[in-house]
Amino acid sequence: MNLKNNILIIEDDPEINKHIKSKLSSYGRCFCVFTKEEAQEAISGNLRITHAFIDLDLDKKLAGLDLIDDCIEKNIKCAVLSSHESQLVVDKCIKKGVDSYYDKFDYFENYHNINSHFFEVSNSDIVELDDFFKYKYITTEKNIKENIKLILSKKVSYDRVIQIAGETGTGKSKLAQLLHEESDLTGDFISFNVADCTPSLIKSKLFGHKDGSFTGSKGNSKGVFELADNGTLFLDEVGEMSLEMQKALLIAIESKEIWPEGAQKPVKCNVRIICAGNNILEKLKENKFRDDFYYRINDFIVNIKPLNQRVEDIEIQACEFAKVFSKERGLGHMTFTRDALEALKALQWKGNSRELKNEIKRIIDNAKKPLIDISDLPESLFKNNSNERFKMPKEHIEYLLEHGYKEYIRSIENQIVEHLIVDNNQSRSKAGQDLKISKDIMTRLYNNYKKEERSLCN
Amino acid sequence: MQLTEYSKHDLKNIYLKLYLSEDYSLTEENSKKYYSILSDFKDSKLLEPDFRQKINNTLMKFNN
């Protein structure tokens, strides 16, 4: 039994609950509850639940759906067991962030594989790259190499597939390259995007072909596997691979040999595989992804957070991109004011570093002076990129650009004081609590407001 | 016996309990009860064909 796992079993039928417990008892300490209220108490209590198996049909009214939110909030890895087959319900569960969805029949027929998969994935080595991009992104300074070594020091042998997880534009390919450069491998770094290749040609691109092996093939050609021999092969968009190709790739990884198309004998290839892909779990559920291939690529996961969850990196990268692009254009050193950087940090950057890089390039191309202020930032940047939670009305953007950042902030602060304290007669202490700021700061805002009011009267 | 959405859910649980009864023994009373309920629904067109098949397989196994 894995004593690190505290597994909560939420099922209202006592006999079924007992059965589920019998299937899970070797994976950790099991706690059985039978109602939504009991489950909520267990989740928020002192049991330190790590995993949950939730009966979706709890209390015969899909009460399990609410419990998914409670689990996600507490970072509990959860699986849903259900007799419900409606796609709407399945989609709801996936959107809520549930890790796995199992039909109850399937679960009991295949519980060995399902449990192995569920707990194996959760026991994978996962490295969060919070610190990696705190340092310079596009340079290769010593501190980046130190962080790479930190990852590699987790004893990632070359046999293990490394999966880099992250949104598009976060730098997965760049990281894969740096991992290769810091390794002892003597071969090349080869990058291959599965989505860029016609499905009928993938096998040939991966494993190569012999002359005349298919219509249109001329001469012998090495595939990316052979090109990356004794080096690293980065496979991007691995989720786009067909089931057949996943099988072929799995065999190649495990046997360390490949069969070029039309070849009479295999070719030995020793390649470290790094891969990346989107929506792999959803594809697994839709049976578009093989179980065995899934386990193979979930062994060591490096997670890169979206750029808007690493706001300090926005500043570091924006300054670095400005430096590089201004030098390329022979413009001398260009950088941003504090106000401009704060404005950039507040944006969403759905395209992550790639989008940031493109926008900084555009800003540098149009900049009239070496110190770029907020008023030099294009309006389109705020229109297209604003954090949807704080969508600024157009008149705010116009005021901001006309009067500048300091004047805009002063105006907002005065309006807050006016609304909370003057119009609604709240105390400074209560207003501070509502705004989640200290009483001292609230007092300062109030005094500034009163000072301005007096100067207007005079 | 009418089959409502909730009854379908109960039926699936009943099927599972009989299906899993090899893992630990059911009481004779429960075994008979579940067997009887499943027998009533084994040919019901209101159930999905593969669920009907599962019920029939389990009933047959139980008979043997």
Query: What percent of the residues of chain A sit in helical stretches (DSSP H or I)?
Result: 40-55%
Quickly give the structural class of chain B.
mainly alpha
Q: Assign an overall shape of chain B.
A: globular
**Structure classification of chain A:** alpha/beta
Q: What's the main sheet of chain B like?
A: none
Q: What's the oligomerization state? A: heterodimer
Largest interface: A-B, 13 and 13 residues
- Using the alpha-carbon principal axes, give the shape of chain A: flat
**Which parts of chain A are unreliable, with pLDDT below 50 for 5 consecutive residues or more?**
130-143
Count the beta strands of chain B. Answer: 0
Radius of gyration of chain A: 28 Å
Q: Give the termini distance of chain B in whole angstroms.
A: 27 Å
Return the string of H and E elements of chain B.
HHH
Q: Helical amount among residues of chain B, as a percent range?
A: 55-70%
Q: First CA to last CA of chain A: what distance? A: 78 Å
- The count of helical stretches of chain A stands at 21
Number of strands of chain A: 15
Average pLDDT of chain B? 78
